[in-house]
Every structure is written in C-alpha cells, then in structure tokens.
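Spermidine/putrescine import ATP-binding protein PotA (Oceanibacterium hippocampi), 225 aa
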Amino acid sequence: NAVLQLKNITKKYGNTLGVGPVEFDVEKGEFLTLLGPSGCGKTTTLHIIAGLLFPTEGTVLMEGRDITKVDPPYRDMGLVFQNYALFPHKTIYDNVAFGLRMRKVPKAEIRERVMRVLDVVGLPGVEERLPSQLSGGQRQRVALARAVVIEPTVLLLDEPLSNLDAVLRKRMRLELRDIQQKLGITTIFVTHDQDEAFEMSDRVVLMNRGRIEQLGPPEEMYDLP
Ligand code: ADP
Ligand code: ADP
C-alpha cells in the first residue's frame, strides 16, 4: 500500500553525484527516516520528493500517479524544513491559516481547523501571539501545525529539531512521533542522528555516498557505527 514510490532516482549536480540511483516505497501512515552522514544525499532526495529539485533520472509516483513534473504547491505535501521560518509579523493564527486561505477554504472552516490543529500540537490559546513570543520548541510545533493543517497526503521533515537545544530536542522526538500517530500522516523525516532515527521511525533508509546501504525497521538494522 505505497503512497509514494521513488523509481530509479538519480540527481547529478554537474559532475557531482547528489544521490542515486535510489529506489524505495513509502507505505501509508508510516514514519520513514532518511539517515546518514552529511553529504550522503538525504536533502537532495527529500527535495526531489517535494518537487524543489528535478531528478536527472527516474520518476516519483504518488498513489500510483507520476508526479515528477508536478510543481511543489500541487503535490499535496506538507513541508517543515530547518530554515523554514514562520512569518514573524503574522500571529500564530495567521501563520497556521495561511495555507488554508491560499486554498480558499471557507472562513468558519479555517477557524475550526486552525483551533483543532493547535490543540493537537499542544498549543491551545496561543493564536493571537507572535512567533517571537513563543519558545523555540513552541515555534517548531507551530511550523508543524502549519504543515499538517492542510491535511497533506505526505509530510516532509528536514532536520526539524536541529535548531533546538539537546533537552528540548529529545522531548520533541516523542511529541512529534505522538502527533504523527494521532494524525496517521505518512511522514518522511531526514536526520543524521542515529538515536533520533531509531527512536522515532517505523523504517529507516540508511544512506551513504548517494546510495541506500540498508532499509528496514530499526530493530533489523545491523553493523551500525
Ligand atoms: P545531505 O542532505 O545528506 O547532507 P545533500 O543531499 O545535501 O546531502 O548532498 C549530497 C551531495 O550533493 C553532496 O556531495 C553535496 O555536496 C552535493 N550537493 C548538494 N547540493 C548541491 C548543489 N546545489 N550543487 C552542487 N553539489 C551539491
Ligand atoms: P545539509 O544541511 O542538508 O547538509 P548543506 O548545509 O550542506 O545542507 O547545504 C545547504 C544548501 O547548499 C543546500 O541548498 C544544498 O543544496 C547546497 N549545497 C550543498 N552542497 C553544495 C555544494 N557542494 N555546492 C553547492 N551547493 C551545495
């Protein structure tokens, strides 16, 4: 029951190999992590899935349909990237409502969905505040709320916890996993942190030098550094 399929994907930057060839499926509702050292091709892979990069070779299928040439806004994906900041001068409500307004969702429904998602991420009552009035962990949860409120088919997370301090980072792992399970949303997570990957994931794609070295549930991975 694959939601997303990467078929024989390769990306070259001039003569530099970004990634590939790689091939894997993402199952409905699973939390899949791309794990590996800096430069192994995690971000390149995620950006190809998001439509921010076009592969040199290969195709991306979503629910069986070829989306390789579909532009990012039309891919039905929620994105939380490391440097994907909130709008600083907009309230939390307006930040979260942004994608729904773009999609011309009726006002009353926007209100209901924004309130519900802020509740799910554990931030009821913050809607009139500005991002600067929240802690780093709270802002990260708002970014997550903003990504999931549009009810995307797939959620893409690129090192979303890396700007947080160590203690908060650990706590947010559990929270993030909890939110993902509550929503039942298919999620692809990128990290170079093995503990993080093992604690959170249903399956891990272990990458090295642009290739997949292992792919499976954390308890079945072997010979790790
Ligand atoms: P990771 O996310 O695992 O750190 P990347 O996907 O960012 O890895 O990078 C994979 C490889 O592609 C690296 O060798 C990196 O230097 C190279 N690369 C990434 N982006 C570019 C780019 N815009 N131009 C040239 N090389 C790039
Ligand atoms: P990551 O944290 O994913 O490893 P980097 O900090 O390496 O990302 O890269 C940040 C940005 O620089 C990305 O947009 C990436 O595509 C680009 N980039 C990475 N490596 C290179 C490279 N060798 N040449 C040009 N651009 C690169």
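Residues 51 and 73 are 9 Å apart (CA to CA). DSSP finds six helices and ten strands in the chain. ok done for today
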